[in-house]
Amino acid sequence: MRFQKLVILCVFFLIFSSIEIKAQRIKKVTDKSYYSDDVLFAKLLKSPQDTVLIQEKEHNELNEVVIKSQPLLVKYGANGNIDVNVNGTVLATSSSVNELLSRVPSVVVAEGQISVLGKGEAIIYLNGILINYERFAAIPVSQIAKIEVISNPSARYDAEGKAVINIITKQNVESGIMGTANQHVSASKFGGTSYNTLFDFSYSKGKFSFISNYGLQLGRNRELLYTTRTRPNPDDFMKSELTTDWKRRFNNYSNFGFGLQYNFSSKDYISLAYSGNVNDLGGITESRNSITNKSGNSLYATDIDRNDVLLNQFINLNYNLTTQKGATLFVGSQFSNYNQTIGDFIEENSFVAETDSERYLKNNVGSRINIFAIQADYTKKIDEKTRFETGAKFSYTTIKSGTDFLISADNSDFELDEELLSDFEYNEKIAAAYFNYVKTWNNRFNFSIGARAEKTSYNLFTDAKKVQEFEKSYGNFFPNALLNFDFSEDWKGHFSYAARITRPRYQALNPYVIYQDPFTTIEGNPNLLPEKTHAFEIGTMYKKFDFKIGYTYKIDPISAAALRGDTPNSYVLRALNLEKGHTFFTSLSRSFNVKWWNSVNTASITWQKSVDNFYGFVFSPVKPQFYLYSNNTFTIPKLFKLQFLAWYLSDRSYGLGTENSRSTVTLGIERIFFKEALKLNFSANDIFHKFMVSGDYNVGETQIYYHRTYTSNYFKLIATYSFGDSKKANYKKSEIEQTENNRAR
């Protein structure tokens, strides 16, 4: 651990030193007279790192001077946003978009959440259109051009989520046939071996375009959770040491999709897209729970034979029109369908007071979610310095699920457990409208102001443990403002304010029981409230440095905890609303690009305080969290690329609990063969295996400690083959999905 910290600190010492390195430039000149003039040609080559290629062509063609450099990995915007270049960088060798985002500065991926430091959980967009987590996981990395991290989203973006991550695919698909084939092999001593096979194919001719993709993951994965729950009070003493080991087997993890588009002109089109993914998960979940109380010691061993199948399907129909006066109209619709079946077989063995006992359970769950959404966006360019945006959306969601638990003492005659039997129905409608006004003054100052209004209504029915049936309706108004200042060519600044909302995920509302062991279940909370936030940020850019400072206030923040159940030793993992939360953050970033070295570096400090007076959390002193990030690519011309990536998150205390530090160090090497047709990449990910999520908190007179280990340390070999004959064409694939899809997981 000391060696790892020393390496990272040495890198940051070099980066933030006073050494100024002039970045490489890209220029292309086709006028022969330009470089025939010695003075102008000398100006062109004023940087000693510039590389010049002079290509002689036929006597009736102009000569060409090309000055090349490797692409800049990250660009920091004056408005606080970050653009991360993927195409042509080592990031393009990631096995999945999830892995790719974990390598993006200021983005943290853990426990199924994607967050932006200082802001909180982010929502994902694809080419400017909101998508759900399942659709996000199915995006082929080979189709991604860049990623935008939007920390101050305007009213144009859904109010769901504190930040926006916009994934932009390669829009200019060459006409003719193009495709890539990827084979990934990952080997981990901790988790086993997995295989990812990825294909994407495109064809374009005239006004028609077609794209398709397919990916298949096979192999194994592992996740290990160690938890202790202690009640120190002598009158109610109990200590539980629980180890849960998920040994997953990917029977069929695949994603697929295709799209058709007809271009009326270069800017007008209509498109139809179908996509989906199948997750057929097998394997064994082993649970061992040792409980000590006033009655003595006992051990409970549980093995769950997993048989979980999830099928998600999405259909998009979109239309885009651009008028001669520069106005743009986009209309999109989508139907989403989620089908999940669970058929887990559970074997329990108990060792209590030198007495052995066993029983068998079957957990059968069926769930279906349908979401229909339609939205329209209109942009009008009033003049060269003024733009007006407006739009509306409507979504309708229906959910039906049922759970059956069957129990047997001899693995033969199973009887239905009426107490664990449950049905759940949910219907939701959301209507929204927004406007955004953008104005530039004197080329030194520009601003945007806007607002989004949303009306939500839903009805819920469940008979889990007791019948609950109710309806709710509420409206929200979300203003936002962004001011940008250009003080000089080298000095820029911005100020932003945004109001946002986070609605509970559907599973968090569903109170059906997810079995973990005889004393541990995961259950939804139908009384969850949406979380509201107000975020402020001030930032400045000076030359190659980017500095930000911000504050976020949360109302009814959504969290989770292990709460005591109905029996003395049982606990229920449940989402809940805290009272309020405060977050302060500041960050400093610097990146540069030279002929052989591309480097991105960020350092930040986050101070977070959560407050609650209802669930009996024990307050602890707040401790800030430090974040260090460095991503470096070294290019050896005509040989290979080397990558060094490292980030570090320190310990923190947020008032109601603490989290321990975690970090990652990754090394990679890449080589291109056969005129860029074949690309080989070998990487060692999380070399020291320090990406582990752990911490502790005290709630309801119980001290809880958790430590979660992932399959993050692995060696990976990637082979990518590109084929096709291409000319210029244009395929714009847009998708229409809403925040409701994000909540379906």
UniProtKB/TrEMBL annotation:
Keywords of the record: Cell outer membrane, Membrane, Receptor
Subcellular location: Cell outer membrane
UniProt keyword annotation of Membrane present: yes
InterPro entries membership: Beta-barrel_TonB_sf, OMP_b-brl_3, Plug_dom_sf
Residues making up the signal peptide according to the UniProt record: none
Domain Outer membrane protein beta-barrel: 323-721
Location, primary (coarse class): membrane
One GO CC term, this protein: cell outer membrane
Matching SUPFAM superfamilies: Porins
Keyword Membrane recorded: yes
Name this polypeptide is given: Outer membrane receptor protein involved in Fe transport
Classification of source organism: Bacteria, Pseudomonadati, Bacteroidota, Flavobacteriia, Flavobacteriales
